[in-house]
Amino acid sequence: MELLYKSTRSDSAPVTASQAILKGLADDGGLFVPERIPKLSCSIDKLAEMSYQEVAYEVMKEFLTDFTQEELKNCIAKAYDEKFDTPQIAPLKEADGTCYLELFHGATIAFKDMALSILPHLMTTAAKKNHIKNEIVILTATSGDTGKAALAGFADVPGTKIIVFYPKNGVSPIQEKQMVTQKGKNTHVVGIRGNFDDAQTGVKKIFADKELEKKMEENGFQFSSANSINIGRLVPQIVYYIYAYAKLTAQKKIKEKEQINVVVPTGNFGNILAAYYAKNMGLPIHKLICASNENKVLYDFFETGIYDKNREFMLTSSPSMDILISSNLERLIYKIAGADAKADAFFMEALNKEGKYEITDEMKAELADFYGNYADEEETAQEIAALYHKTGYVIDPHTAVASKVYRKYKAQTADQTYTVIASTASPYKFTRSVMNAIDHKYDAMSDFELVDELSKIAKTTVPNAIEEIRTAPVIHNTVVEKEEMKDAVLNFLKIK
Q: Is 403 within the bounds of a domain?
């Protein structure tokens, strides 16, 4: 049965999965959502025996119904290959009685690889299916990880170009080095003088610019997105929650049909929304624990029902969560509003004009699956140190935020449900924050000295993604004002 996608903001005609992936954003500025959340058609005991690639097919075929079996399996095979440093793709590690789902074994050592390894293949397949002749220009804003993962995924992919905007002083030194050393004739990286929300807003404005769209068309180009607003990013993220649950039953850590909690460090809300979709597919998830850093706009939302971005923007040691406009929350708002596009459009207009909105009591009641809390900078550092000194296991600051929030949840609720924490980045990506948290004696070391020291104390191999950038030359050094983003796009595409 074909599954179509509609916009969160209007009752415009639905589109196929491949069309939604190509467009990225709906014409009315809304996000594409499936008309229904499909149920898993494969039993957990069967999934438990499968490889990651096989589970990916079983999950994704339910959502991407206009892709043939051969097309989808081909995309999956190209995505989840030796780019990952473990055949498990997303291994589970236990530390201090909690299970960490390691989502950082891909080419750029962050969870974004899980979806951005496959998105270029889904997109080029979708372009063929829809007889697209234009070159696809991927336009992406990043708070640190999406940028490099998208660049690595799309580098030298025929028929595509990719432009990534990032906040010049809002990412870690390793994150920045990963992006600005990216090879590929079709890649372009631009720092902006502003924060991530400025970059994301600028990208959305470019997408909404109809005059620019016409000019692009005249020059043989069309925009699409690699941000988590693209449904082609979200669907692959559902896979790893289902894979993790199946593997836990295979390992006899949980019984089949036993509930688990899932904790996700959250900025743009895409990763935890994927877990929510997994729950809606039938996965036995009890609580979805939404972990924020000091930019706690989501924590405040779950506490009060008011989403308010009018606050100071904090730069933290977990930069991928330094976000005040959580774009993917719109998909949840749409769902809890009873799939009412007019209501969703009303809330998004209020966010655009006043920077805030308040949901109804009926909608608040629909949020019972979620628990929100946050960890400040001191708590994040303490969590890294405490876990290391107790177990020898080293986590990055984003995972530490999640780990600390889970401790708070447990202290408040005494809930003993088996819990999986999404470990979203390798500690090697944030060596200074991690090593400073463990011991201040490391303060004087350079970034790459810290990498080697981390390898020693964690007893882990330095990832290839880090080795590659030790001596890599800087290729991209463009920095612009946030108002100049459109010009930067036109210059790269050589459009006058």
A: yes
What's the CATH number where 373 sits? 3.40.50.1100
Task: Please check the confidence at residue 144 and state whether its pLDDT lies above 90.
Answer: no
Determine contact, residues 328/273, Cβ cutoff 8 Å.
yes
Name the strand (E) or helix (H) holding 330: helix 329-336
As a whole number of angstroms, the distance between CA 239 and CA 234 comes to 10
pLDDT of 1 above 90? no
**Torsion angle of alpha carbons 451, 116, 395, 438, nearest 10°?**
40
Is 312 inside any structural domain?
yes
Pairing assessment for the beta strands 32-34 and 160-167 based on DSSP bridges: unpaired
Residue length of the chain: 496
pLDDT band at residue 67 using 50, 70 and 90 as cut-offs: very high
Do 185 and 442 form a contact (C-beta atoms < 8 A)? no
Digit-coded pLDDT (tens) for 419-432: 999 999 999 999 99
* pLDDT tens-place string over residues 159-205: 999 999 999 989 988 999 999 999 999 999 999 999 999 999 999 99
d(CA 321, CA 433): 15
> Tokens at residue 3, please?
């599954």
Q: What is the domain count for the chain? A: 1
> Is residue 202 in a domain?
no
* 112 catalytic residue (yes or no): yes
For residue 262, the enclosing domain spans 92-109+232-469
Which one is catalytic: 6, 112, 177, 287? 112
